Amino acid sequence: MLRLAYGINLLILVPVCATMLLARDGGLRAIFGTDVNGDAPAIRLMILSMWLAILMASAVGLVWPRPFWPVLVIQILYKTLWLAMFAWPAWRAGQAVPWGIAGSFIFIVLVWPLILWMVRPWQAPL
Asked: What is the pLDDT of residues 18-69, one digit of tens each?
């Protein structure tokens, strides 16, 4: 089950990271659906660095799934915070929300805890 989560991470993050690396505007419009303010290069590199780290950890997690389960917890935490602090308030205020990324975040926030609960990797020996 953990390998399924890591595999889904790879399916989502390979095209996202490739877009961010190869697109002329850094891919922010394609990913977030809107322009990002003047700090776009710094924001793009920060987001890209985090997502590349999760991508690499997920690739290793396919081989050694149990030691890398905290990567899934980190995803649950930061995606929940983003949804609660940005997407939900923007949606309630009638502002545009990047539903492509929000949808993938919602999926992960709902599914990864179920996978972790079913596998309970913290209880098994490494």
From this structure: 988 887 766 666 666 665 555 567 777 888 899 999 999 999 999 999 999 9
Q: What's the total number of domains in the chain?
A: 1
18 contacts 30 by C-beta, under 8 angstroms: no
Write down the pTM of the prediction.
0.84
The dihedral formed by the CA atoms of 107, 103, 84 and 110, expressed in degrees to the nearest 10: -10
The domain in which residue 63 lies consists of 2-123
The sign of the torsion formed by the CA atoms of 57, 63, 64, 69 equals positive
The rounded radius of gyration (Å) of the Cα atoms in the chain is 15
| 2 contacts 121 by C-beta, under 8 angstroms | yes
Q: Which two tokens stand for residue 95?
A: 């502002």
Sign of CA dihedral 37, 77, 90, 110: positive
